[in-house]
Amino acid sequence: xxxxxxxxxxxxxxxxxAPSLAPAQTIASKVEEQGSADYVEISALKARERNGFLAxxxxxxxxxxxxxRVFWRVKWLDDGGFQxxxxxxxxxxxxxxxARQNLRADAPTPKARDFRVQFNAEQN
Length: 124
What we know:
The protein has helices at about 1-15, 25-30, and strands at about 30-35, 40-50, 55-60, 70-75, 90-95, 100-105, 115-120.
């Protein structure tokens, strides 16, 4: 029970440190899956403002023992949910079997106040 309370407190602290990911929002609310990714998931997602620009960091986890290739990009949005930048090209990344990989993206404009990560896996 103490461990559950400690984990809940740590999660709340992490969410309060990232103003764009308010406690009511989840990783799933920030991800747009383009197909199904059976073996790769976004296991952590953080956002913060740095020098007036939104920056995000995410961790991908490969739950399979074989390498998986995934593709991702970020859709940058304003406070009203409107896209403020052209679509980015898809970025490929190879995640080794049973491994985790950290990825980072910085908003191309200070108008970006929110985001959605678009995500797809090559093999399922």
